[in-house]
Amino acid sequence: MTGPETAPAAALPHLKSAAAGASPLLSSVLFSLFRGALLLVLVSAAVFTATELLPGDAADLMASPGADEEQTRHLREELGLDAEPWRRYLDWAGALLSGDMGTSLVNGRPVADSLAQRLPATLALVVGALLIAAPASLGLAWWAGTTRRGRRISTAVLTGGAAVPTAVTAAALAALFSGAFALVPPVSLLPPGDSPWHHPDLLFLPVVSMALPTAFFGGGLLAGSLADIVRLPHVADARRRGVPSRRIALVDVLPFLLAPFVRVLAVSAGGLIAAAAVVETLFGYPGLGSLLVSAISTRDLPVVQATAVLAAAVVLLGLLLGDVVAVSTEPTRGRAS
């Protein structure tokens, strides 16, 4: 019998196919969310513990010269530092879950205000560095993954470039572009309240200092994936049939490289957040990294905690988006060209 009665039965295979296709994506999202929540807890606990292990606290640093132990104790009570560490951590975590990041122990300013002021500056560095590092890492990976001779040399170049500390790269670039050629300022002191995008000369040194090691790091990760892809049967078949190299690259290789490329970008973004702390301190750039370093030096625990958790949240969000895009775009291996 044909007609409306058979329509649901005919559509059932398509619904099952759609559900099967959505299942890996849903599983990836759920796993990433669980992983992200767990890592945020671990990051906050690790940062809190590390700060507690530092000698002294905010009360010791804020006490006036010559203050006796009793005065320091009263100041510690005013700052809420007299409670047990585990209780202070739980109080802070509970307040954070309710949207309260706390107040700075040093200047009494809401931590959320400080983060909102500094976050755009750091994101400008990360985005700028990714815009440079992404195509550069893809080019380096293509060179290393497709070369048949000198594989050891290409691997050594990528590994060596990624191993150079960000501080060394920054110092070399500053000596070259600020010292030798005097093309850009040696420091990146943004005017208060001004957008970093209005001052590309101030962004140049920190952005390039972060982008170069990231490009080598990403190129090294992608080179292995690319070497595997070019050995897939459909790529070898395309070569035997005399398909032009450009078409092989665009049609048979790049679609398979998109998923690992997105994941590498997500991992690289996390590394750039960490590198920002070094670069911002070196160039006097007013971002999250310099705020974190300053807060650690003054034992301003609420600022340290909130900055670390915010940076971790940004990284984990990038990883989540990377997983979603990678799962959504990953083609079926072994298709014919």
From TrEMBL:
UniProt keyword annotation of Ribonucleoprotein present: no
Membrane-crossing segments per the record: 25-48, 123-144, 156-183, 203-227, 248-266, 272-296, 308-327
InterPro entries: BPD_transp_1_N, MetI-like, MetI-like_sf
Record's signal peptide: none
Cellular component terms (Gene Ontology): plasma membrane
Main localisation: membrane
PROSITE patterns assigned: ABC_TM1
The name this protein goes by in its record: ABC transporter permease subunit
